[in-house]
Amino acid sequence: MSNTDDGSRPVPTHARSLVFIGLERSPPYILESSKIPSELEDGEVLLSIELATICGSDIHTLVGQRTTPNPCVLGHEGCGVVVKSSRPDVQEGDKVTWGICASCDNCQFCSLGLSNKCENLIKCGHVLMKKAPLFGTYSTHIRCPRGTPIVSLPPALTPQLAAPINCALATMVNAMSKIPPVPSPGERGASVALVQGAGMLGLYGIALLKESGFSKIYCIDVNLPRLSKAAEFGAIPVHPDQAWPYATEPNEEVIRPDSVDVVFEVCGNKDGLPQGVRALRVGGTYVLIGLVHRDSRMNILAQTVITKCLTLIGVHNYTGKHLEEAVKFLSQHHDRYPFSSLMGPVYPLTQFRNAVEAAKSGRFFRVGINPQ
Ligand SMILES: [Zn+2]
Ligand SMILES: [Zn+2]
Fold first, then answer.
1. How far is the CA of 168 from the centre of ligand 1 (A)?
2. Which helix (H) or strand (E) holds 289?
3. How far apart, in Å, do the first and last CA atoms of the chain sit?
4. Which of 29, 144, 216, 268 is most buried when burial is the number of CB atoms within 10 A of its CB?
5. Is the domain covering 2-165+339-370 a CATH 3.90.180.10 domain?
6. Could you give the C-alpha distances from 194 to 262, 276, 287, 290, in angstroms and in order?
7. What's the 100 CA to ligand 2 centre distance in angstroms?
8. 255 Cα–ligand 1 center, Å
9. pLDDT of residue 149
């Protein structure tokens, strides 16, 4: 099954991939073998996938809440080993993660530092195979096209720790870059944050906020097991039923109005927006991250945003710079938080249906796919 590549390293001739073929088919995917060319395109990198993870957006594709072209190799979260590289900065044998947005580095958005919104964007796990043949992670191999950020992983970051870096963690690093710097101790008292949602984004957000100096972080979610995980990460867990009406006395368990510096929305539920706006102090910052779907019309008063002098910011994906910071952050702090407890069961590609069912059950923060 292997070529020899200029006598040095064997390169596989074929990849086996889970290909999305459209919702009118049942199941909407097939396991397919496809040829790997012996020569890579300019700027391309071929990787062998060590571990992939199922993200909520993959489930959205499979249940029709998100439009994905087909045929397309599904999956975007994962990590792998470089098999062959046509880039001088990426070496064969390197363990790496990669950015989900391959960009042109040439258009107006790339020059504005928004390569995640590149006019010629190629998005991992959401691209037609004829445009980028193997740019998805539910596959033995992935071909990262030119313009894909690729970052080496230190040995301490096991595949279980590293696989979700290139979606949830890098996105939250981008979210952190949008908030004002935390004042130094004594300058203006404590910094307080509210994280709406205790999923993968929320937990990474809690760790990032803590390490940047926030002294109090509330996390709100309807799911009690998730809330207790948020508490393990150091947040004050709050169930929505407890949060309102506001306390008249300061209370660790209840979020007071006009008291929070920063709110991260990572729950995808628009009904939390009035609550976030009420919790923010004058001049506070609201970062919207999770509401990436059509049922997201905002039910807040512009008047309140204006009179409280709030800043509302949207964050979608991230750039290569954020991915590098994400790898650095996890390398430094992976043993200070229970990150390794976030990985649920791992399935082979042949059991993709079971993996999807496990992911849909909501019992695990992440379900893994080992395609080898
Ligand atoms: Zn994702
Ligand atoms: Zn561009």
1. 6
2. none
3. 14
4. 144
5. yes
6. 6, 8, 11, 14
7. 14
8. 30
9. 98
Would you list the domain boundaries of the chain? 2-165+339-370, 179-314
Query: For position 68, what pLDDT does the model report?
Result: 87
Residue 141 contacts residue 83 (beta carbons within 8 Å): yes
pLDDT above 70 coverage of the chain, percent:
92
The pLDDT of residue 255: 84
Mark the residues whose beta carbon lies below 5 A from ion ligand 2. Answer: 103-104, 107, 110, 118
Cα gap 254→45, rounded to integer Å: 50
pLDDT in tens, 11-26: 889 999 999 999 999 9
Which ligand sits nearest to residue 110's alpha carbon? 2
Alpha helix (H) ranges present in the chain?
56-63, 108-111, 159-162, 168-177, 200-211, 224-232, 240-243, 273-279, 302-307, 320-333, 352-360
Ion ligand 1: protein residues whose beta carbon lies under 5 Å = 55, 57, 167
**β-pair partners for 238:** 220
The crossing angle, in degrees rounded to 10, of helices 320-333 and 200-211 is 70
> Residue 67 Cα, ligand 1 centroid: separation in angstroms?
15
Per residue in 128-169, pLDDT (tens digit) is 999 999 999 999 999 999 999 999 999 999 999 999 999 999
| Same CATH fold assignment for domains 2-165+339-370 and 179-314 | no
Rounded distance from Cα 167 to ligand 1 centre (Å): 5
Whole-angstrom distance, CA of residue 372 vs CA of residue 370: 6
101-110 contacts at long range (C-beta below 8 A, 24 or more positions apart): 101/149, 101/317, 101/318, 101/319, 102/132, 102/135, 102/144, 102/145, 102/146, 102/147, 102/148, 103/147, 104/147, 105/147
- Judge whether residue 362 has pLDDT over 80: yes
User: If you ran DSSP here, which 8-state letter would residue 139 be given?
Assistant: B
Ligand nearest the Cα atom of residue 116 = 2
Distance CA 245, CA 267 (A): 21
Q: What angle do CA 10, 11, 13 make, to 5 degrees?
A: 130
The CATH H-level superfamily of 179-314 is NAD(P)-binding Rossmann-like Domain (3.40.50.720)
